[in-house]
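Thread: Newbie trying to understand structure tokens

Hi all, I'm a second-year student working on a class project, and my supervisor (Dr. K.) asked me to get a predicted structure for one chain before our next meeting. I've only ever worked with sequences, so writing a 3D structure as a token string is new to me. If someone could post the tokens and maybe explain what I'm looking at, I'd be very grateful. Here's the chain:
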Amino acid sequence: ERSQPNPESAQFEITLTETSEAEAVPVGEQLRVTTQITNTGSQQTEATIQLTTTAGTATGTDTDTQSLTLASGDSTTQTLTVDTAGVQPGTYTATVSVGITAAPSESESGSGGDAETETTTEFAVSPLEGAPGEFDTDGDGEIGITEVSTAAADFIDGDLSIGDISQIAAEFIN
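---
Reply by user tm_fold:
Sure, no problem. This is what the structure looks like when written as tokens:
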């Protein structure tokens, strides 16, 4: 039996843990957003997690949706993706939302509720390919000194190869 979820007993907390590989997404690649979802309510709850963007796509697929069930106090990590094929370069907003669809109850059955939690993050879509595209944080198709500095820090930390930093430096010089 399902009933309207009680907002006091069914609540979620969303933490964005990772957005794609680096600072930007080259056109045509997947935007990946990894989130940790925690049921902070007092009962097991069924919910829908959804990633939406303001970017749009040539194919119209700018959302990803997954269903989940979490017991009170439990957490799960979910990765959602959207394709950037056909997206104009620029900076956009990605929103991850969790909507409660049903919460167990001993009362009479009913439809799911609309209690929702959401969080947003900014991301850039770059016309550049490969490593330069991942560091084109404003999506303008150019690598600036701030973007080179970010790449250099990643290289120093061991998170970027010599080949990748060379591509980024070459794009900066052009």
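A couple of things are worth pointing out once you decode it. DSSP finds three helices and nine strands in the chain. Strands lie at 2-3, 12-19, 24-26, 30-39, 45-53, 63-70, 75-83, 90-104, 116-126. Feel free to ask follow-ups in this thread.
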